[in-house]
Every structure is written in C-alpha cells, then in structure tokens.
Amino acid sequence: MHNQVIYQLYPKSFYDSNGDGIGDLRGVIEKIDYLVSLNVDMIWFNPFFVSPQNDNGYDVADYRAIDPRFGTMADFDELIAKLSEHHIGVMLDMVLNHTSTAHQWFQKALAGDAKYQAYYYLRDPKPDGSLPTNWQSKFGGPAWSAFGNTGKYYLHLYDRTQADLDWHNPEVRAEAADIVNFWRAKGVRGFRFDVLNVIGKSDSLVDAEPGTESKFLYTDTPIVQTYIKELAAHSFGQDPDSVTVGEMSSTGLQQAVAYTKPENHELSMVFQFHHLKVDYVDGQKWTAMRYDFNALRKLLHTWGTGMAQGGGWQALFWNNHDQPRAIDRFADPKQRYASATLLAASIHLSRGTPYIYMGEEIGMSDPDYTGMNDYVDIEAHNAYNALLAQGLSAHDAFAIVHAKARDNSRTPMQWDDGATAGFTTGTPWLKSTNQRVVNVEAAVSQRIFAFYQKLIALRKQFNVISEGDYQPFGENIDWLYGYQRDFGGQHLLVLNNFADHDIEIPIPSAFQKAQILITNEPSLNPAATLTLPAYGTVALLQQ
Ligand code: GLC
Ligand code: CA
C-alpha cells in the first residue's frame, strides 16, 4: 500500500458530459485515459450521493444512491468497472458524523418517530431558555437549531442542515457499517471518513469554559478509537486490500499514531491539517497573513519524525477541496513550473501516502475573482458577513475571502484555454479565470504533469521512498525544507528551497557523488555545496 498514490477528484468540477454546467460521473468515464496516463492507484471521489448540496454534497440525504445531477447507479457501476480494468481503485467519501436534515432519518425524527429521534443529539434548552450549550458551529453561528416546534434543539457542528448523528446509539453505528458494506459489495475498497474524530461527543453535553473553544470537548475523545475499531471489524477491516483515511480535525500526533498503527486495526492513514494553518493569525482562518515558513517546516518535521517513530502513517497533501491552492499560499504562480514541482516533490518523496488534488498535476492556481458574487460556498459568504460585522471594510473582508475561500480549489478542471476551460458546453457552476495560462494542453502544465508522472513511478521503483524512515535535514538553513530517508542500503536526501532566491546547501560527504533522482533544475551539480535556485527541488540517491 505504501507505494500507492491517490488522486482526489471533485466530481462537480472535473468534467461535465451533458452541458448542465455540473461535472458528472459520465464526465469522469470520458476522461479515464487522462487518469490512467497519470498512473495513480486510487481515486477519492468527493461525495456524489443524493444531497440538497447545501455543503456541496457533505449534507447527504441518501447514502446509497447517486444524486441525479451526477448520474445514475449504472454510471457508477460502469465507472468502477472501467477503472478496475486499469487497476485503479475507488475511494468513496463517507460522511457519517452527520446527515442532511433532508435525510429520511431526520425527517422521521421530526415527524415524531422515537427510534430516529435517538439517532441525533436532541436536547432541551437550558432552564433560562437559552441554547443547550454555548457551542459554535464550525461554519459560524451557534451549533444548535430548533427541532421543529418540539421546543427541543438538535446539534449541528457544521451547517444547520447537517445534523450530527449520535454515535452512542448502537443502531447508528450499525447503520454506518451497513452503508460501508453496501459500497464494499460494489467493489469499493477505499474509504475516506469525513471529520471522523468528532464522532465521540460526550453523552452529557456541557458548555465550553468562557474563553475556550468548544472543539476541545468533542475532538479525539478516547471513544473515537473504540468506534473506529468496531466499524473496521464490521466492514472494511474484512478486506485485506482496503485503504482508509480518516479526516481528523485538530488532531494530535499521538492520536494520529494510534489511529493508524497497523496493530490497532483502525485506519490505514489520517489527514491532519496543522501544516495548513501556518497562514492563520492566532489559529483563525479568516485572517490575512503571509505564511510562516519556519512554523511550516517545524510541523512537517514533527509529524514526519513522530509518525515514523510511532509506526503511524499519514496522508501527504498540500491541496484539497477545502483549501485554497498551495501554489498561491506557499510558492508563486508566476514561477509556475518551479513552484508546482517543488511542492509536489517535497511531499511525494516523503514518508506517507501522497494525494494529488485535481488540477494540481497541471499547476492550477486560485481564480482571480473580483466580487462576492463569484463565490458559491456558504462558508465564504458567512465569513464575509462576519468580517463586515466585525468592522472590516468591504475591501479588507473581500481580500481575506479571496485568499482563504474553499472555492479557490473547487473551480473546474482546466482542460483547455477556451471560455469554459473545456469543462462544459454550458455555464459552469463556478467560474474559471486563468485557463489561458494553465490548462491540460499548455506547455507549462504538460511539464508539470510529466514531473508528477515521474514522482509516481519513482515511488513504485524505490523502497526508500515508499518504506524509508524520516530524518530532518538542514534545519539551520533558511528556507530549506530538507529530509533524509534510509532503507535497506538506499539513502535519499531531499532538498526543497521554499525561497524566491538561491540558497546554498552544504552537502554531506556521503551524498557528494550521489545520483540525482529527480529535480526541477536540470543544471544542478552536487558537490561540497549545492546552490539551489528559487523554488528548486532535488533528490539525491546514494546506494
Ligand atoms: C469536511 C469536508 C468539508 C465539509 C465538512 C463537513 O471537512 O472536507 O468539505 O464541509 O467536512 O462535512
Ligand atoms: Ca453534468
């Protein structure tokens, strides 16, 4: 499993086969050759289940049916069959912390069915009539909304149309396993579990202490591991070739090790996000700040070393559908080839399973939107209004949304330089702005794509990449993110320059005659010192 690379595909934005402006499963089928040529092992699809789409499919109304806007079950069956002809697996997104309020469980609960009321967290207001707890929703506002006209409230850590499921209820846990088994029976072997480490809320919900965040009360509680073990035993754990990843919000290193150590029989790996908060002022996302390289490097080293020492396994990623494009945050889209390949090499040669987020492999960057009307995501609109309410000017609030919005990565895949980037013959649900510069057919994109192909091939070829350990290198050299990896007589030194200028790196004698395994700077010559240009990357192999 460690030599695999996973591609994340956002179905709504990959390819639209019928001109309605929304990507769909037939669109993916039409583009299978593209995915095959990249040579990825598995594709993680963001949710395409029946959903009102208040949170782009993370509000699921039926876990066992395809939303008509994305296609039909026959399309899905065809897609999985065609991908498996090419030995590409499918990873589905299991959103099991909450359901849409349009889900029949919630609807039955609302209609008074006690069985389904016990699926959710329903609570009375406090004696003074205020909300059951002071918890905040992660999308802004209180985490409680009125449960019909019953006088009770239901808990929603996300949007008010995403009601949290009560995992204390064994019937809820059985439903979760059943859903996973439904897809296993169709041959699905990969599962990504959405916000998995918040399923262990305490039964007795209490207020967060003034000045503290409520998330500490419900994140990574010990019972999460019990629930994951049970889910594994009743579903994916029965497939020796299953690949699972838990999306872990604000998780800790020791917990991440525990979730993924093979002997614990929980998950193959986890996503953690600490390295993607180094451009947050005081941990707050909706703020403006150039990222802190030293903080980033320290986090990458802490997690690389800690996971290796503890025997855990991490997902390696810079981008996903919730993050602005890394090339804008940590490098420079004006130096697109160097920046994109630097970011790619820095994680693909590291210890863990690399994920490629749709469009990253051609160097896609954030769109240049000019007004709030260009954004679709509720989170962006809520944040904009909250920033205005805090007293920011419209100009400053917009600048923050522009840099931080999730729509930055959700723009359609850029297939060509046409008006809709070759994504649709209709009006795209979200607009593209820079497809003339970056698209599958552009020379710069093709060079980036070829670099990714090579990284994927190297991971299959060299055990030191898939299985090696992890040791930080050159922490005293400004702007260098370096690490060394050793395995069975192979030694790999990976050097990544995050600066917009040259840096000088003293090379240990053991690597002075090493082979250059891959670089984005063909003129390099390893000697006693190596000058690495802006956004340069090089991997030296000694065996
Ligand atoms: C995860 C998803 C995100 C979604 C949230 C609530 O963080 O990646 O897109 O909004 O969960 O389901
Ligand atoms: Ca469509």
Largest sheet: 8 strands, parallel
The radius of gyration is 23 Å
CATH fold node name of one domain: Immunoglobulin-like
Rounded mean pLDDT is: 97
Poorly predicted runs are none
Helix content: 25-40%
CATH architecture of one domain: Sandwich
Beta-strand content bin: 15-25%
The bound ligands are: alpha-D-glucopyranose, calcium ion
The CATH superfamily of one domain is known as Golgi alpha-mannosidase II
Question: What is the CATH C level class of one domain, in words?
Answer: Mainly Beta
**Number of DSSP-assigned strands:** 22
Q: In angstroms, what separates the terminal alpha carbons?
A: 23 Å
Anisotropy-based shape: globular
Structural class by sheet pairing and helices: alpha/beta
- Strand order in the sheet with the most strands: 13-12-11-5-2-1-15-14
Number of helices: 17
Written description of the protein model:
With 543 residues, the protein is an alpha/beta fold. The protein has helices at 25-30, 32-38, 73-85, 104-110, 114-117, 170-184, 215-218, 223-234, 253-260, 293-310, 326-330, 336-348, 378-389, 394-404, 407-410, 443-461, 463-467; strands spanning 6-9, 42-45, 49-50, 62-66, 89-94, 98-100, 122-123, 144-146, 153-155, 162-164, 190-193, 243-247, 269-271, 315-316, 353-357, 471-473, 480-487, 490-497, 503-506, 515-519, 529-532, 537-542. Among the domains are: 104-164, Oligo-1,6-glucosidase, Domain 2 (Oligo-1,6-glucosidase, domain 2), CATH 3.90.400; 468-542, Golgi alpha-mannosidase II (Immunoglobulin-like), CATH 2.60.40.1180. It is built from 17 helices and 22 strands. Strand 8 (144-146) and strand 9 (153-155) form a beta hairpin. The two termini are 23 Å apart. The structure holds alpha-D-glucopyranose and calcium ion. Alpha-D-glucopyranose (GLC) is lined by residues 55, 58, 95, 158, 194-195, 247, 321-322.
